[in-house]
Write a structure and sequence with these properties.
Nucleotidyltransferase, domain 5; alpha/beta; five-stranded mixed sheet
Length: about 350
């Protein structure tokens, strides 16, 4: 999945993803002060267009013939964690392929596999490997689109490591790169991605399914409304047992509010459980904080989770690192945000 990093005379870098008929891209340019200024971002849906029509549309956006990097979306691969097999480094991939053969959701011959160490190798913790099992069809589709557009495709990355890069650059700016730092990004309606990193390495990751309609829910209001309607009938969702023996009937609106509140609380509980698991597995590395991103509602989410979880939660703001980002279409920013992490990839970075 990796290709050697090569410098190109073009000052523009193109980062793309192509999954389930949705194409996303970021085009950025290095500035004199070492930043990466965002020139262009966008999301294009294939819809009923043929591939030839889509390629012509992307050409009209000026995306032909650029040096490019691609990022796979979570639905295009599995990220598994296994005990590190006791073999020589050059045998890790073969050993990992054998070990995960019953864990993948496609035939083992239909995946492209890569491995990386969990953590930085300096802190006491589980001796594990992350195994990336990408569907061959997904890789071929990205490469095929790149060939059609004349890209010099150099790297195919994954979303978890791209997110690690984003949180690492913010931790570096804060002067706490060596501290464990958590990030929770919501870039679509289906999933949130939680990662924990330190020293620019990925230690922990988990994908959390979102309640239906999550991004349009009134997070604080739904919880407060449910508590006001039937406080005695509300069972804490940490028990995962809703109370159907409430004190009398409530209106449909109140019932809906209470349902939303339960779904929201379950989401909070799953975040807290993940952080508790971190504390148990990596007790020598206390968590420095949690950063969150939810598009226009990032600050609201930070405030809500801070109240619910009783710990420091801050909104992720990438404008300082990527000038010009906030000038781009808001609707495209969330889905394209992980692509910015691929821009931060260095020559020595694995995966």
């Amino acid at each position: 999945m990796r290709r050697p990093w090569k410098r190109n005379s073009s000052r523009d870098q193109l980062i793309v993803s192509w999954s389930s008929g949705t194409f996303a891209f970021v085009r950025a340019r290095a500035t004199a002060d070492g930043l990466l200024a965002v020139q262009q971002i966008g999301v294009e849906l294939q819809g009923s267009d043929s591939m030839d029509d889509l390629v012509r549309r992307l050409q009209s956006l000026g995306l032909k013939g650029l040096p490019a990097h691609a990022m796979l979306r979570p639905e295009q691969y599995q990220l598994l964690q296994i005990d590190a097999p006791p073999v020589a480094p050059e045998e890790l991939r073969a050993a990992a392929r054998f070990q995960i053969r019953e864990m993948v959701n496609v035939h083992i011959d239909d995946i492209t596999l890569d491995v990386m160490q969990v953590g930085d190798g300096q802190h006491k913790g589980p001796n594990n490997l992350f195994v990336v099992a990408a569907k061959n069809d997904s890789v071929r589709q990205v490469v095929g689109l790149g060939n059609a557009l004349g890209w010099k495709l150099q790297v195919i990355d994954i979303q978890e490591t791209a997110q690690r890069n984003l949180q690492s650059i913010l931790a570096k700016q804060d002067g706490r790169l060596e501290r464990a730092d958590a990030a929770l990004l919501i870039t679509d309606e289906l999933q949130a991605l939680l990662t924990i990193s330190a020293n620019e390495e990925l230690f922990f990751t988990r994908r959390l399914d979102l309640p239906q309609g999550f991004l349009s829910m009134p997070w604080d209001a739904a919880y407060d409304a449910a508590a006001d309607v039937a406080p005695d009938a509300f069972t804490p969702v940490s028990e995962y047992v809703p109370d159907y023996a409430g004190a009398g009937a409530v209106s449909a609106a109140a019932s809906s509010d209470r349902g939303d509140a339960e779904r929201l609380q379950r989401f909070v509980v799953e975040i807290q459980r993940s952080l508790d698991l971190w504390d148990r597995a990596w007790s020598s590395m206390p968590l420095g904080g949690l950063r969150v991103y939810a598009g226009e509602r990032s600050a609201e989410m930070a405030s809500w989770l801070s109240r619910e979880m009783g710990q420091a939660v801050s909104a992720m703001d990438m404008e300082t690192t990527f000038p010009g980002l906030n000038a781009m279409a808001v609707a495209d920013q969330a889905y394209c945000l992980p692509l910015l992490g691929v821009l931060l990839r260095t020559e020595s970075r694995k995966l």
